[in-house]
Write a structure and sequence with these properties.
By secondary structure, the chain is an all-alpha fold. It is 66% helix and 0% strand. The radius of gyration is 18 Å and the shape is elongated. It binds protoporphyrin IX containing FE (2 copies). One protoporphyrin IX containing FE binds next to helix 1, helix 2, helix 3 and helix 4.
């Protein structure tokens, strides 16, 4: 069985982890009433920015390393999987960017843990207002699509019993 290159497997699972953390910590990072709120806000922004950084690494790595050929599947399934993957890549880029714009709409400055001020775009620019307003909706759509994608992977593994999930798993022993 031809597996995904190790780097792409690592980036896939690190991204999945960062997305789950960003979603679990979502709220308004610019509005903190106590230390706990402030901590959750930091976690949201840092994990969300990590999603962007990971996909910015992953797209060129994918181009350079390539991916294993698609497993045989009915045409509709192959098309649906491809469309879902493209949409997931788009959301990995767009949701953090929209979050960055939403943050600029909410506050003039945001200091990351460690004291670094996060550069923010001009809140008066019309693209910033517009993009910022889409953040919550896009973030929710992202989680739904990722959930359906994970469900499809489990259906392949448990019902169709093919190698779709195995070739994306990090451990060789598990992927046998
Ligand atoms: C994959 C990454 C991310 C996901 C899935 C995500 C998801 C969400 C969701 C679902 C909400 C709405 C929460 C609620 O109102 O109950 C939210 C709010 C917010 N997020 Fe994110 N977020 C991500 C990344 C980011 C990043 C990178 C930033 C900042 C740089 C950010 C800043 C904000 C802000 C300011 C809000 C409150 C304003 C609003 O609801 O539009 N987010 N996020
Ligand atoms: C937020 C979470 C996730 C995101 C954003 C995501 C995104 C993606 C993307 C974009 C691909 C296409 C890879 C490529 O060809 O370049 C992919 C492949 C894959 N993902 Fe995920 N994924 C997530 C979570 C999961 C989870 C939880 C599972 C398993 C339960 C999973 C299982 C797989 C499998 C098996 C493949 C390979 C599909 C194939 O070869 O056709 N993913 N994922």
């Amino acid at each position: 069985m031809k597996r995904y290159p190790a780097l792409l497997i690592a980036l896939h699972w690190l991204t999945a982890l960062a997305v789950v953390i960003a979603y679990a910590s979502s709220g308004n990072p610019a509005e903190s009433h106590d230390l706990f709120d402030a901590l959750i806000g930091q976690v949201h922004v840092i994990s969300g920015l990590a999603v962007f950084a990971l996909v910015a690494l992953r797209l060129p790595a994918r181009l350079l390393l390539g991916t294993p050929a698609a497993l045989p599947a009915p045409r509709w399934q192959a098309r649906l999987a491809r469309a879902a993957h493209i949409a997931l890549y788009a959301l990995m880029l767009l949701v953090p960017l929209a979050g960055w714009a939403a943050l600029a709409d909410e506050t003039a400055t945001f200091t990351l843990a460690g004291g670094i001020a996060l550069p923010l775009p001009d809140a008066h620019a019309s693209w910033v207002e517009w993009l910022g307003e889409t953040h919550e909706t896009l973030g929710n759509a992202f989680i739904w699509l990722a959930g359906l994608h994970a469900l499809a992977a489990l259906v392949h593994h448990n019902l169709l019993r093919d190698a779709t999930l195995l070739r994306m798993l990090p451990l060789k022993a598990l992927a046998r």
